[in-house]
Design brief:
The protein is an alpha/beta fold and about 210 residues long. It has six helices and seven strands. The strands form two sheets. It has a five-stranded parallel β-sheet, sandwiched between helices. It has a two-stranded antiparallel sheet with strand order 6-7. The longest helix has about 35 residues. It is elongated and about 70 Å long. The protein starts with a strand and ends with a helix.
């Protein structure tokens, strides 16, 4: 592994800072840069002139502050992956962190250098894939919106999952999203024709 990781750690605990720094040093040696902040700032700082790859936030032990801390870290990080460091194994808190949008969590007492670096690497790579998919989705949406051809996508239950503006106009809809999940949008003749075509296409995939 030759990547240089730029990491921001949000903590006011010298113990957490020392432990994570030691684990990173053990595994990455000189291939990481760590900037420690006591909490979220107005804007995320650069690490040696570049945006950080990941933000690690040390979570409070009091459960009532958990959600507030997570939201503050996510707002601070923007689209940068956030990892939640917790002081003890707690399945409920771990699940809550993932549901709140964290990329992963770190259980400090059982954390090893290998596990720490693996979680950081996976979070960074997953973030890259998510960003690529978001760009492709944006390009597809722009293309569908501008094409004069009528285009739609349906699931195996013949429900619309996506239609473009031209198709929405044919249905008399103000917004393409109004068609999502519906099947009863066409006059009988057109519906029968499109259902037949859809069934033939689905059969060809089996």
């Amino acid at each position: 592994m030759s990547s240089m990781y730029r990491i921001i750690l949000l903590t006011d605990s010298a113990e957490v800072e020392s432990r994570l720094d030691a684990l990173l040093c053990e595994r990455l040696r000189g291939r990481y840069l760590l900037k420690v902040l006591p909490g979220p700032a107005d804007a995320i700082p650069l690490v040696n002139g570049r945006a950080p790859d990941v933000v690690i936030v040390s979570m409070p032990e009091r459960a009532e502050k958990f959600a507030i801390c997570l939201q503050g870290a996510r707002d601070f990080a923007g689209g940068i992956p956030v990892l939640a460091a917790i002081s003890a194994e707690d399945e409920a808190l771990e699940l809550r962190a993932l549901q709140c949008g964290e990329h992963d969590f770190l259980v400090m007492p059982e954390l090893t250098s290998r596990a720490l670096v693996r979680v950081i690497r996976n979070a960074v790579e997953r973030s890259k894939v998510e960003a690529k998919l978001a760009r492709e989705e944006e390009m597809l949406g722009s293309l569908l919106a501008k094409l004069p051809d009528r285009i739609y996508f349906k699931d195996l239950e013949s429900r619309f999952v996506r239609i473009n503006n031209a198709q929405a106009m044919l249905f008399g809809l103000r917004d393409p999203s109004e068609a999502i999940g519906r099947t009863e949008l066409l006059v009988d003749e057109m519906r029968a024709l499109l259902r037949e075509r859809s069934m033939r296409w689905q059969a060809s995939l089996q």
